[in-house]
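Deviation from plan, reported transparently: adenosine-5'-triphosphate complex.
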Amino acid sequence: MPRLHDLELIGIDKSFATSKVLSDISISLKNGEILSILGPSGCGKTTLLNLILGLEQADAGKILYEDREVNCLPMEKRGFNIVFQDYALFPHLSVDKNIRYGLANKKGLTSEAELAELIDLLDLGPHLKKRIDQLSGGQKQRVALARTLVMKPKILLLDEPLSALDGMIKEGIKQRIIKIAKQMNLMTIIVTHDPEEALTMSDKVLILEKGRVAQFGTREEIVASPANSFVKNFILEQLESKKENIMKLFAGKKEFQLDY
Ligand SMILES: Nc1ncnc2c1ncn2[C@@H]1O[C@H](COP(=O)(O)OP(=O)(O)OP(=O)(O)O)[C@@H](O)[C@H]1O
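Because the crystal trials were delayed, the predicted structure below was used instead.
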């Protein structure tokens, strides 16, 4: 029988010293799905991402990937990979060398043909010889994505991938992330504090309030039936206040220009 879910978090708790940061977090997700972890500053989004990645250990609960418990596995054995908010690229190396960096110790993991396909998908061909400091923010983000994807992660984790970008650049990266997740059937988990980002990019949304699940569901479920007043206020009020900007952004624009 096919598996219902590929990633399952069951009853995850996490404290730092005496302060409980996450309580009883349970979610499930399939390969190829995009999840946004959404909530105000300090609600535990990054901590949850770090627990999935293996940078932090949960105090209680289970993390299962493809029916295997991964709690006890160190980060490198889980095979998940993250793009950090600041991209963490090597400024003195070319785009090409940055992309290939992780492959030095993993020869053959990604073939030259696969690499060429990825460079094409992310439109990085014209930039391969440039240094990182010669790139725009959106280009840097695309290099960071390529560098992570060549390692063939089972799950792609993204910490605020759009927060340093604006307008059209943001939209271009958003479309690329969706395309990558769907084309590669890659489970993608995105941390964001922006409801508009979460609702336009994801299949599922996890809304956290002070370390607890305020709601977990499809974006349609969240918009149509917010679970409580926190969700309603956090999501809908922010969306309402951004509506004018969103309308302005989309007005008169038929397609997105992607090479920023
Ligand atoms: N290593 C740590 N040691 C102690 N406390 C920590 C640690 N990491 C996070 N915290 C605390 O846990 C809480 C949740 O932090 P976390 O970074 O997960 O929130 P967040 O939702 O990602 O916030 P932001 O949107 O501001 O990045 C915060 O109160 C933070 O101070």
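The longest strand covers residues 19-29. We consider this an acceptable substitute for the interim report.
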